[in-house]
Amino acid sequence: MTHTHQLTGTRVTPRRKVLISGASIAGPALAYWLNRYGYAVTVVEKAGSLRSGGYPIDVRGTALEVVRRMGILPRLRDVHVDSRRITFLDADGGTVASVDPHTVAGGVAGQDLEVRRGDLTDALYTAVRDDVEFLFDDHIDTLDQTGHGVDVTFRGGDSRTFDMVFGADGLHSRTREFLFGPEERFHRYLGYCFAGFTLRNTLGLSHEVMMWNTPGRAAALYAVGDGDEVHGFLNFARPEPPFGAFRDPEAQRDLVAGVFADAGWEVPGMVAAMRDADDLFVDVVSQIRMPRWSSGRVALVGDAAYAPSFLTGQGSSLALVGAYMLAASLSDRDAVEGFAAYEHDTREFVTANQELIGEGDAALFPTTARALERRNEMLRGLSAMPPAQGRPAHSALTLPDLVHAG
């Protein structure tokens, strides 16, 4: 439908209205690019506000070009964490090796970014907040595709119709469940569980990671700066995901505490801090693998469509690149053609990054004594090597040029 502007007499095509569920990384990035291409964008987020702080995340390879084109690269450089070393410890807390983080992660020193999650989400939000409608403390309650669009009712009671809807609502996406059914259909468990929380920096750590390992268990302290708090991580192998324990917060704590009951080094203090933590997050280490990322007028992006797991270090980068590619595919196409182009042009990049890790074979978390000793020998060799020059998968996609909205 085309309207005539009353003052000028020129004919104006109404902006297509789209809804994005999720305001973490993929959501605001997609909102930025769709707004650039002339869409009227609404973002709904179940949290009451942006989540500040948070654990560090990486932006590498092709994703660096995305944030450069958004104009937020200088801001992110200013808040770069710049971790200086990872020290690996044995069962008794003795040093196995101390290595450059880029050598372990396959990053590129001086190029790749490591920033607090909250710093990235704040930069993305700031870049788009004046041009896009944000609805905080709300979420999609029902979603119904019709011949004229997508009818959405929100938990807060409002109802609207959009031309397209996008799920950028993470690993446990409700949008994906609306479209494709239960998460279990697409969930690929990688053989590990983890608990993350903050605790006091009693060791005086600064810009570094300390990681303790025994077969099938790991405990890490991650000092983003030289402040009073550090991020604690407790990771352990499990043949099957213990979903039963995850339904109850106390059962979560009991499960983790039981796994680490006889651990040495600083682990007893970490377990005690986990018991009292008000920001504890417990989950399985997993990926989302889907044969397609869209249905009708609704598409998924980021972790909702192709979570690679934190073990790859590529979750945020895939979200940024996926958002760019999805918007570019819709710059001059309708939903059907645009979504097909998005999947065709992005899937190989996604698959290459998801396959950086296999089931139960994370190099940092060996599950047997023999595998742990092999890893330790590898680390001792790495400690004398210069930083790596990046993994090919991180830069395995060249972004298409910007299409200027007419």
Description:
The protein is α/β, with parallel strands linked by helices and 406 residues long. The chain contains 12 helices and 20 strands. The chain has helices at 26-36, 62-70, 73-78, 101-105, 117-128, 174-180, 249-259, 267-276, 303-306, 315-329, 335-354, 369-382, and strands at residues 3-4, 11-12, 17-21, 40-45, 56-59, 85-89, 95-99, 113-116, 133-136, 140-145, 150-154, 159-162, 164-167, 187-200, 208-214, 217-223, 229-237, 281-288, 294-295, 298-300. The chain has a 7-stranded mixed beta sheet, with helices on both faces. It has a 6-stranded mixed beta sheet with strand order 9-4-3-13-20-19, sandwiched between helices. Strand 6 and strand 7 form a beta hairpin. Helix 1 packs parallel to helix 5 (117-128). It starts with a strand and ends in a 24-residue tail after the last helix.
Could you list some keywords that capture this structure?
406 residues; alpha/beta; 7-stranded mixed beta sheet; 6-stranded mixed beta sheet; 26% strand; globular
**Most strands sheet:** 7 strands, mixed
Distance between the termini: 17 Å
Tell me the overall shape: globular
Q: How many β-strands, per DSSP?
A: 20
